[in-house]
Amino acid sequence: LHEFELPQQFRFEQPPRALATTHVQALLASIDRSTAVGRRDHALLHVMAGYGLRPGEIATLTRGSIDWQEGTLTVEQSKTSSVLVLPLSPDTVEVLRKYDDRRDSAPLDAPLFASAQPPFGAMSPCAVSVRFKVHARRSGLPITDASAYALRHSFAMRLLGAGVGVKLIGDLLGHRSLASTSTYLRIQTDMLRDA
Q1: pLDDT per residue as tens digits for the range 142-164
Q2: Cα separation values, 18 from 46, 68, 110, 149, Å
């Protein structure tokens, strides 16, 4: 049995690199918002980039996840089976209001980001990832090899650069251990130079 090749753990394999803030902003700006699908995609990528959500977490958001009075977004974090209530920035409120023009008439359990093609209903996590790839390709930016998770990594690096502690970043990302968070946070040359 010792001659059999055993499965290898990729313990030291690194996750996708974070995108530069300028690339994230340029990606969002490149999305055509003249159509309903464009407004939906812009809103979902804006929320992913601004709050570090996983594609699966985006897919489970409902219209009831937004409390317009309090200005909060409630996210069910699947990996930790916890609920996170996040304050919405004024920019995010504006983006969501422009996208969700049916907020007064749609039921609260309706998906926030619905599929534009049959079968209608909530977008799947895979569909969210595909929409990122479509817009990354259309943007003309050098990010075509990135995945939707790059927005999550960008969020973590932006918080680290702003001086937010690793524990709080891990809590926002829904991690159970600091080891998980540390794989998201790569020390960049600029950070070393500043230090």
Answers
A1: 999 999 999 988 998 888 888 88
A2: 15, 30, 32, 9
| Residue 36 vs residues 45, 62, 99, 120, 157: alpha-carbon distances, Å | 14, 17, 8, 14, 31
How far, in Å, are 24, 61, 66 from residue 130 at the CA level? 16, 18, 24
For the chain, how are helix, strand and coil distributed in percent, rounded to 5? Answer: 50, 10, 45
Q: Where are the alpha helices (DSSP H) in 63-165?
A: 90-99, 125-139, 149-161
- pTM above 0.85? no
Tokens coding 39 = 């407004």
The confidence score (pLDDT) of residue 10 equals: 47
Q: What are phi and psi of 92, to 5 degrees?
A: -70, -40
- What CA–CA distances, in Å, run from 66 to 19, 22, 105, 154? 27, 27, 14, 23
Per DSSP, helices labelled H in the chain are 21-30, 36-51, 55-60, 90-99, 125-139, 149-161, 166-173, 178-184, 189-194
**Terminal CA-to-CA distance of the chain, rounded, Å?**
51
